[in-house]
Amino acid sequence: MASKRLARTQDPTILVLTSLTGGPKHGYALIKDIEAMSGTSFGPGTLYGVLARLEEEGLVEPLPEVDRRRPYRITGLGARVLRERLEVTVKVAALGLERLRGLGA
Amino acid sequence: MNADRWFDVALRGYPAWWQERYAGEVRTVADDLRTAGRSPARIVVDLVVGMVRVRRSAFGMPRTYRLWNSRTRQSVATATLPFVLLTPFVLAGVGFTGLRARGGTVFYSGFLFPRGLMRFERTGPLPAPPLTPAATLIFWSEGAILLVSLLTLFTIVYGWGNFVAAVRNATPGRSRWARALGWTPALVVVAFIALSALATRFAPHGWRGVVGHPSRPIGGNPALLRLFHDLAQVALVGGWLLSVAAVAALARRYEMTPFDLSVGARVSSIMAVLAVLLGLALGAWGTGVYLQAHQAGRGTFTIVEFGHPSLWPLSAAAAVLACTLSVSGAARARRGYRIVAELGG
User: Fold this and answer.
1) Which of A43, A53, A55 sits opposite B43 (nearest CB)?
2) What tens digit of pLDDT does each residue of B62-81 get?
3) Is B305 touching A (CB cutoff 8 A)?
4) What b-and-e string marks burial along A14-31, b requiring 16 or more CB atoms within 10 Å of the CB?
5) CB–CB of B26 and A44 under 8 A?
6) Chain B CA closest to residue A65
7) Which one is the CATH code of B65-171+254-344: 3.30.390, 1.20.140, 3.40.50, 1.10.3470?
8) What is the pLDDT of residues B208-266, one digit of tens each?
9) Is B54 in the A-facing interface, judged by CB distances under 8 Å?
10) Is some CB atom of chain A closer than 8 A to the CB atom of B47?
11) Could you give the CA distance from residue B131 to residue B288 in angstroms, rounded to a whole number?
């Protein structure tokens, strides 16, 4: 239960940006990739809320539509922001794991 | 209704600019997810939640003067109108009160304001026994509610005056009906005063009574008195609702200058603060009512009574909703005004 609750607290913007580092993807492909990557299943309303925000901030950009599906790709700024956020996450994760080892957990 | 129809209905709830940009893509994703086996109900719920988020945050909304002007006007309306709508009903529910000693003597019955707080004992024929602690809490919170309502009334009058000027600025040399519609609240007040004055004309000139028998009115016309009294009440309640609807319709239709929007944003902030204060006072009042109903007292105390104490959970829920709308609307109005000012006009 607690593990599920913690999984829900993952930042959706990080999940979307991380998924797009694997190449441009349209909405459905993003949902499936994020589900495989983190176990979090987005709905279309949630996903496009995140995409609109990232697009406004210049972190992702839309590509021309193919067969009613518009792919998105991460921008240079998006990659830089993601790197900074992931580096902090890695530091926190490393510290947390080290302390857990100290606890013998 | 099948899933396709539900998807369409949910998508129609999104703002027009969003639908233009994203609706086609989202619809395709929703269809793909359904084909992959996801429950349509889950998809619809997610679309509705997404719609609320988009309407609240406006992320991705194009930075055009027209769109942001419209959003700011809507935010000001959201911050002010639900609260304006609620206030008279709160006053009617809380303000009409009675004070009764536990023994049964009624010391006071009527509208609390503007009688001096805590001086009720002068209204009764006997010195009133002390208030219970719960009744004291009710009394002071009622005072706070009335004070906040009075401040709200001043803010409404200030905001409405500016709104009428803003409609005039927005419709130079045309739309007389729009300007007239802006004056609806004033017309309602005039109609109420006129009907009340007419009712007074048909009131009895005096009362004749004999000990042991009910008093009889001297002169007047009870049927017409009742008719005009009821019409005045209808004009007040109906007119209040009509005024709110008229202001909402005008705010939705007419683009306003950045200066007028800045006044609107300021009024929204004041109303949000007043809404929070009213919510807190209502919370204290409800706590007092609950404690009074559950206290096990001995001896003689004065307690406070209301016509409809069971309505308190409903008024509390309405107050929480109005507070939330008011606070979030005021924040959006301030942000919207800043963007409109940046975009010029």
Assistant:
1) A43
2) 889 989 999 999 999 999 98
3) no
4) bbbbbbbeeebbbbbbbb
5) yes
6) B25
7) 1.20.140
8) 766 666 677 777 788 888 898 889 889 988 998 898 898 888 888 888 888 999 999 99
9) yes
10) yes
11) 12
